[in-house]
Automatic annotation (TrEMBL):
SUPFAM superfamilies (UniProt xref): AhpD-like
One Pfam assignment: CMD
Database matches in InterPro entries: AhpD-like (IPR029032), AhpD_core (IPR004675), CMD-like (IPR003779)
Sequence ranges assigned to domain Carboxymuconolactone decarboxylase-like in this UniProt record: 15-98
NCBIfam families: ahpD_dom
GO molecular function, one term: peroxiredoxin activity
Name of this chain's protein: Carboxymuconolactone decarboxylase
Length: 153
């Protein structure tokens, strides 16, 4: 038996709309800071992989493909450290995404943080942290509400 879950986005619609607006602001400021849609979608997809959010995995893998990214990079994303397929900026963004998502287990030491700063501006670091926080929250809304992934026709 499947229990019907409270659709958090509908039950608290004004809160959800405010969060959508906040996420749009983060995305706009991130793009203003020079972060590409590809970098932002890599963060969204990697966080969604860690959290196991099927709905967001489906959405953000499609979004990455729309940016012109490749199936190969999407396929190896969980093992990004073991490939040479990602730029220094993308690697720094993925490091931030994983650190924010696994915050109870992972903290960047000063040396690691210094390495990030070689590839990112202060604004980019801040906005990537906000991007990771935002997708983590959306993952939790989707998972708790059991958003369905429907088969494509």
């Amino acid at each position: 038996m499947t229990v019907t879950r409270v659709p958090v986005n509908k039950q608290s619609a004004s809160v959800y709309r405010a969060y959508l607006d906040a996420a749009a602001e983060v995305r706009a400021r991130a793009e203003d800071a020079g972060l590409s849609r590809t970098v932002l979608e890599l963060v969204n997809l990697r966080v969604s992989q860690i959290n196991g959010c099927a709905f967001c995995l489906n959405m953000h893998s499609k979004a990455l493909l729309e940016t012109g990214d490749t199936v190969q990079r999407i396929a190896v994303l969980p093992a990004w450290r073991d490939t040479q397929l990602f730029s220094d900026t993308e690697r720094a963004a993925l490091e931030i995404a994983e650190t924010v998502t696994w915050i109870s287990d992972t903290h960047l030491d000063d040396d690691e943080y210094t390495l990030l700063r070689e590839h990112l501006t202060d604004d980019q670091v801040s906005l990537l942290i906000w991007s990771a926080i935002t997708i983590n929250a959306f993952n939790r809304v989707s998972i708790m509400s059991r958003y369905p992934v429907r088969a494509e026709k």
